[in-house]
Amino acid sequence: MASSILGLGFESRRFSINRNTGVPRPARRFSIGEPGVNEASSKVHRQFRAAHEGHLPHAGLDATRASTGVVWCTEQAGEHGFFEEPEKWANLGQDDIEGCFPRPKTIDISNAGREYGPTAGIKPLRVAVARLYNEMHRKGKPSQYTWENVAIVPGGRAGLIRIAAVLNNAYVGFFIPDYTAYNEMLSLFKNFAAIPVPLSEKDGYHINPEKIAEEIARGTSVILTSNPRNPTGRVVANPELAEIQDICRERATLVVDEFYSGYNYTSDCDGSTISAAENVMDVDEDDVLIIDGLTKRFRLPGWRVAWIIGPKEFIKAIGSCGSYLDGGTNVPFQEAAIPMLEPALVQKEMIALQHHFRDKRDYVVQRLRDMGFAIKLVPDSTFYLWLDLEGLPGPISDGLNFFQACLEEKVIVVPGIFFDLNPARRRDLFDSPCHHFVRFSYGPRMETLKMGCDGIERVVKKFRALEKRGQGGGA
């Protein structure tokens, strides 16, 4: 029995046992058959397991805390020479945009900027954030955000960790696939239980009100989601978003990651953004926490300036816990961010951003379709494409091996496995519903994007030729 299993290439496969019969249950996989030699024993799969299932323990070390997502991919690319010659690589990240306001190249540091700042952020920036949301999403509404509804945090991850730290004992529902950093945040804290909610591939991974109602009915009291969604590029817009908020009102806290809110192509690139703030009835009563910042729509990730908006009671707790979690955001960059949030300037910025990225999205979708990729749903937000690899030759039909093949052509994509949040590592690698996807970013400048598409085309042609040759030899 053991030799036959090994002979089929399942030496690293873990089987579950039927407790009634003592016989191994049939091996499961998320989509296209069983893991064969290409997956179960390929080098990149072994590396992934080693990095994400831990090594021999050292005293005091949890070795399962490994790099995730883009960081892991960059480390792998570094082994192929990325750090030595990055200009020769299609690193599908972000780019400057023509028509946007110039970014500061120097920053004045005030006397206050030399000192520790308030852990909830400096008041002038909190005022500016509140004003921006009132102007863009709450015109004419009786309930308005004030500076007390805003906490400034040192980046999105720090903001999410602060929110997690103040949650009460609760079931926290999160959706699959979603942003990779949620995984560690959801596994670090013991004051809540994380409950995965798989979205349906056939529905385009769309979050609908019925799904939210179902989760609340089974006792989930906190809902966490990105909107617009990373990695699929889908957006939950009104009236569905308003209906979801109505369902959650007085029943569950809704935590919405809106870092891609500016990348909105649903309103013909008029500069309008997507936000749950529009549907909040009372800013101090509705349990809606919104997190955003300069990182994505202002393309300033290195500044580490983000914000959380919500009821004053939540914001007070979130501000306080910064004193022992992260110490707060640096003051000089907070001061420099204030003029960037003038509503008219933001509106103009968003128009330029949306036109720029929609054009690149259309280019990438056409190139990939010409290569034979099946793209059923064109993203209506973000700068990501959730790229389905089914239909490609077997050796590159899963995300990790496709990623590895792309590295050989100096192209970096992110395997879909990273977006299958698995905080307690309860599922095996091969059971992931995200395993046959990669996240493709159309963020970089057009020259880099063309270079990346050329590299992917070479990968596809190479493996199709090998597949054809193999079929011919068998005949």
UniProtKB/TrEMBL annotation:
Residue ranges occupied by any Aminotransferase class I/classII large domain in the UniProt entry: 108-454
GO molecular-function term, one example from the UniProt record: transaminase activity
Record protein name field: Pyridoxal phosphate-dependent transferase
Matching InterPro entries: Aminotransferase_I/II_large, AspAT/PAT-like, PyrdxlP-dep_Trfase, PyrdxlP-dep_Trfase_major
Family listed: Belongs to the class-I pyridoxal-phosphate-dependent aminotransferase family.
A Pfam match: Aminotran_1_2
Signal peptide range: none
Listed cofactors: pyridoxal 5'-phosphate
GO BP of this protein: amino acid metabolic process
Keywords: Aminotransferase, Pyridoxal phosphate, Transferase
Keyword presence, Nucleotide-binding: no
